[in-house]
């Protein structure tokens, strides 16, 4: 239910970055290996995940870079992925004028998901890209929301009409909190120009 989520401050990348995440999300690195440039948190009460990626800056205009990163995330399903909205974002705890953009997309289940138990009907993706030009870095904040039959009400979802359903409404709230609280505490984490 929107508005009732409890959040906790989380240190990411050894404390170099901090943000507030839902308190029901657990650090995946405690159960399996996660690449050094990534932080992954899974919802212990569902199937959603929050992934923070530090990537080399893509030398493309901002909206093209956002699309490039999305197609990299959805990989083989890029042609079937539908972007519903894109917007500029403002991260209050980053230097004034730091470019940031968000999008909302839906994607079919990836090839790795097909035939598995709990195969999603589709995955909602809330992607935020923060562009750090001097650091030659793009930071991606991705909230992935698998929609599994029996776990959501299909009648409540119609992205073309702005209807997102309960799972995506909760994810939008999580993204808002993540954007509000995201903070770089140690800029030495990045390559400096």
UniProtKB/TrEMBL annotation:
<dbReference type="GO" id="GO:0005634">
    <property type="term" value="C:nucleus"/>
</dbReference>
<dbReference type="GO" id="GO:0006606">
    <property type="term" value="P:protein import into nucleus"/>
</dbReference>
<keyword id="KW-0653">Protein transport</keyword>
<dbReference type="InterPro" id="IPR007681">
    <property type="entry name" value="Mog1"/>
</dbReference>
<comment type="similarity">
    <text>Belongs to the MOG1 family.</text>
</comment>
<keyword id="KW-0813">Transport</keyword>
<dbReference type="Pfam" id="PF04603">
    <property type="entry name" value="Mog1"/>
</dbReference>
<protein>
    <recommendedName>
        <fullName>Ran guanine nucleotide release factor</fullName>
    </recommendedName>
</protein>
<dbReference type="GO" id="GO:0031267">
    <property type="term" value="F:small GTPase binding"/>
</dbReference>
<dbReference type="GO" id="GO:0005085">
    <property type="term" value="F:guanyl-nucleotide exchange factor activity"/>
</dbReference>
<dbReference type="InterPro" id="IPR016123">
    <property type="entry name" value="Mog1/PsbP_a/b/a-sand"/>
</dbReference>
